[in-house]
Amino acid sequence: MTTHKWHSGELALQTALGHVDAVAGVHPIFLPQLTTQHQQFHTSLQILPVATLDSLGRPWASFLTGRDGSEGFIQSPSFTSLVAGSMRLHEDHPVEIALREGAKFGMTSLVRGDDTSYQGPGLKLIAGVGVMFENRRRNKFAGFINEKNVGTKDERTIQVEVMESLGNCPKYINTRQFTPNPNHKPGMLHKKLNLPPGESLPEETKQPIAQTDVVTCAGYMRVVME
Q: Which one of 33, 54, 97, 185 has the lowest number of neighbouring Cβ atoms within 10 Å?
């Protein structure tokens, strides 16, 4: 949920880099909903990097895409809603884990003041950064998963109730064109959710990592509201 100000982790990083004055007062870039431009942007994507939480509240980064890998698998019926549909996610996909057992965070009042707003004891948070790699445009959103509209395992739907959006700069993004591969069968190469200190990834997992030039990471910080 947007606080319209930098949290303590961001402030610490800005201080360490000496950029406190440069970013002072720019937090109004955070919006409580999507803009028309953001709606058009996200509904034109082929893939969507997202971050969700597991049962321990740890963030995991992953990608969402439609069955055939083409544009149009995301719809935006309102300024506060994004719906990614026509997906089939394997059982170890972080979003599937979030749906089954992901941590929830309480919110005692309605998120929005209309009759369709979600109300419940806890919310499953989700955030994403949409990227148009062909022109390096990107926009971010954050919100929660509406658990009333998740489809089925074979026809997964993720409806995001958007609580925050903002534009991002294109630095470090390389331009590229995607070719859909609907016959691809994703799966888990290695699974160990708790890696002890001093233990590294096995060699079979390092090769695909070394061959890529795009890595998505997810972070999370609980902020105490003042």
A: 185
